[in-house]
Amino acid sequence: MMGRSLVLLGLLALASACSSEAPVADNTARDDASPVADATVRNPQTANSSLRAEVSTLNADTSGLNTRVTDMGTIIDLPADALFDYDKSTLTPAAETQLQKAAELIRQAPPGAIQVIGHTDSKGDDAYNQKLSEARAKTVADWFGQQVGVRQRELQVSGKGETAPVAPNESADGKDDPTARAKNRRVEVIIPAPQ
Fold first, then answer.
1. Domain count, the chain
2. Cα-Cα end-to-end distance for the chain
3. The pTM is what?
4. What is the DSSP string of 65-122?
5. What CATH number corresponds to the domain at position 82?
6. 102-155 pLDDT, tens digit each
7. Model confidence over 10-22: pLDDT tens digits?
């Protein structure tokens, strides 16, 4: 009987020790090579709170995309040099990485049409640049149209040629600026703003 009482007392002590807050792990260098186990850190002031913070996977899935938020919605600038070879409208094998990230943003976007707009730099004939910008936008939209969770969306496709640069094609002294021109060669994907 006394043995059972001691065992029961020991179990109660063990249960009490397990229910207390875990200590904060010190992640500084250790002498042994064993990994540090993840520790749960609780703030006593918020331990009973019903609020929970969740980290979105959106950042990990879309890192490296050039995006900006406007009144129209979120604009994703996909550099044409990352999608297409020079003077072409066929996607390169490397383009899929950028397009997958953009597709993830579209999947998480509010309802509404997605705009896909092609742009070029000022090199070449205006009519040729217009046609190239339209062809590149259509290629990107066609790729989106094959993606689960994206193909159901309305895709509005257009090209603006060289008419809407985001950087000057020439430097202040009138010389060609290849770095700025590269910024103008892009496909914009515009995701609608929340209603």
1. 1
2. 70
3. 0.68
4. -EEEE-SSEEEEEEEHHHHB-TT--SBPTTHHHHHHHHHHHHHTSPSSPEEEEEE--S
5. 3.30.1330.60
6. 999 999 999 999 999 999 999 999 999 999 999 999 999 999 999 999 999 999
7. 444 444 444 444 4
